[in-house]
Amino acid sequence: MTVDGTGRRGALLALDFGGTKISAALTESGSKEWLALERRLSPVGADATSDQRIALELAGEVLGGRRPAAVGVSFGGPVWAESGAVKLSHHVPGWEGVALAERLKGEFGVPVAVENDGIIAALGEHRYGAGRDVSSLLYLTVSTGVGGGVILDGRIWHGADGMAGHIGHLRLEPDGPPCVCGSRGCLESIAAGPAIAAEARRRISLAPHAGSVLLELAGDDPATVTAWHVAEAATAGDPLALAVMERAAAALGIAIGSAANLLNPDRILVGGGVSKSGDGLWKTMRRLARETAMPEVSLHLAPAGLGDDAPLWGAVALAEDLTGNGSEGAR
Amino acid sequence: MTVDGTGRRGALLALDFGGTKISAALTESGSKEWLALERRLSPVGADATSDQRIALELAGEVLGGRRPAAVGVSFGGPVWAESGAVKLSHHVPGWEGVALAERLKGEFGVPVAVENDGIIAALGEHRYGAGRDVSSLLYLTVSTGVGGGVILDGRIWHGADGMAGHIGHLRLEPDGPPCVCGSRGCLESIAAGPAIAAEARRRISLAPHAGSVLLELAGDDPATVTAWHVAEAATAGDPLALAVMERAAAALGIAIGSAANLLNPDRILVGGGVSKSGDGLWKTMRRLARETAMPEVSLHLAPAGLGDDAPLWGAVALAEDLTGNGSEGAR
Q1: Is B179 on the interface with A (CB under 8 A)?
Q2: What backbone torsions phi and psi does residue A39 show, to the nearest 5 degrees?
Q3: Angle, to 10 degrees, between the axis of helix A193-206 and the axis of helix A239-263?
Q4: pLDDT above 60: residue B192
Q5: Which residue of A28, A67, A129, B273 sits 20 to 30 Å from the alpha carbon of A302, by its own alpha carbon?
Q6: How far apart are CA B171 and CA B255, in angstroms?
Q7: Residue among B157, B266, B294 minimizing CB distance to A152
Q8: What does the mean pLDDT of chain A come to?
Q9: Is the pTM of the predicted complex or chain greater than 0.80?
Q10: The complex's ipTM?
């Protein structure tokens, strides 16, 4: 256990650049509680510079004058994990090639590690969440995108370019909706929140009567329909909303079953806002995953355990590894 | 290097239970040539007992009185790699639970290891073939089925049930053709040889004129059309055959691109009879794989190097590891 000059355990600072919001949290080595946690929405017109300024402000607030023993950072986009530099963000401009770990090292004077948010959330679930007791894990988060990460033999599997774990880009419908990655018909383009909302709006434009409950929830304005509205309306029995949620759930199940045939992990965890949209989604997702996975492939599919904090707890695991207290968490 | 009582290098025996044919081969530790190789077709009505008898006969022929230092075995179906017992064969009856490694240990009095053929072929390509210089590898073989194997950090990735690497069961068309695994629309049900032949026959029944070249190759009897005929007719410009090959190649490319997004391996190798059906297949497969893989995922797609011998060379690698001469090849 790291002990600082004052005899206290080492403080671990976790930062999360989430694309739409930024978080900073503080804990101590060995603890499972936050000493402090601050979140702020990334403002309209945000760029890499403003996001970093906000993160430093939040970090100052949670640190309250303490010096961290190490800093772990979750970034919502591809990174070079070895150097801690950002490749790019699909959501916030100006991040291309930013040497994020270097800058934060300069700021805090302590070791800093940076990981992609899907990968780091998988690490968080493995170290502190619903994947603690297994050695291999496939993690999915279904929210504004479909992110993911792979843990094999207890360690992050990065892949050749640090791009492993992108289950959101299993391509299910070759002629399906365009995807942010440049392809079409990826899982993300069918099952992420914005895809669910877009599909609902498309179906309302074709058959508004079928989505009356949904439309009411959205204040009778199809343009304001969100995935949350669709999930609510589906729970209330709205047939249009049910069909849209079924489509997303089936796509998730097929992708999960396919990934299980390729990777055969001990456990598969699903988190993110969309994963909380009710039993209907889980039932269809489980059925299609089982139907897709080979009979000899065991399928242990469960909800993620850490919710929106998974990337932050993954950042804690990274920071802990930097202090030499955790098990080695990356390769 | 293993040296036997006579001062010679240790002989390594490789056996391959391929479903339709059985092979035995002999080499020496450190060699890249066969001392002897024998193959025999599995007769009509074959079962586990007759296949084992044939394998022992072939082994006797290639050994010619020598005693092997170790035996590696490739099996065309799921196995328990740790114990060397067979789970089942989808092609030959009577294999359920056969303790193959134990029986062969009893026969030869030396260490024996057994692996699934897709997995062991991946190991063969990694140790002796087109994947020697990389640490992570995804291998596909496209023939009567679509098999595969995954090498990560230079070692076989087995997965929780020893079922990892089944890229043939990435599900691409949820309502597609029934697959031998019990699901529908798997890559194997679209791109394997029998699937290609079946799709050609189906299209001929709808529009015979479009497949005139193909029909001629098959002696004007649609029932005798094989994947080989389809590939030949496609090369000759037959539009029906071209469309069928395009469909298979596109499915392969999409599955490869999707798998690359999930695993991001250093290299992807494609072998098997179907992979040798011409530039057209490779062109479409490469295009769809690149279109499906994320821009940040590098895609190094190449033909497998060892052809039909990949499982046998993988068996050599297994045997070599048993003698303590190879690098550790499994986990």
Answers
A1: no
A2: -125, 150
A3: 140
A4: yes
A5: A28
A6: 9
A7: B157
A8: 93
A9: yes
A10: 0.93
